[in-house]
Amino acid sequence: MATLDPTIMTDLKRDGLVREGHFVYRSGRHSGVLLDRDRLLADPSSASHMGYVLAKRFFTDHVATVAAPSIWGAGLAQWVGYFLEPRAKVVYATPKGGGLTIAENAAELVRGQRVLLVDNLIISGETLGRFGTVIEELGAEVVGVGTLWNSSDEHVGDHTVFGLLNTLYESYPVDRCPLCAESDLAPRIVGY
Q1: Which of the residues 16, 22, 80, 112 could staple to 187 if both were Cys, CB 3.0 to 4.6 A apart?
Q2: What is the three-class DSSP state of 110?
Q3: What is residue 5's predicted lDDT score, i.e. its pLDDT?
Q4: The pTM is what?
């Protein structure tokens, strides 16, 4: 199993990018962690390390292209693609008519390729699910889904999600949240 160097977690906590407590996300799921989605990948040293660990998890899947549905995911996708062997190409979504698409001049990097979907955080799974459909409609084979942390279900579409930090911080449906069972304090509502 791909694991994260403990010093990276120490640095993320020290910098306030990972905070522990009791939180409820837009997905309705609860967790003991709040990740700063805007700054989580701001440090190239920790971002590259997290990208390496994600790439290591998918190293034997023969990924040709890493695809990201968000600006946050695009930064992580660069690191993941860099550490795959051979190095994978990277594409990211562009908005079009209220949906997501791949720019036409980048679509050839997806058509007929083995594609890994990557985003920094998966909150509900809806965006990544829609994006995965776009990728598959271009004729790609989606070989996996990787993220730093998943607050959604275990699967997005037909694919099991590998959430790097989920080994440390699970997310729970409200009716099975151990944090709620242990405390009378209401969880802090997260805007994403």
Answers
A1: 22
A2: coil
A3: 85
A4: 0.93
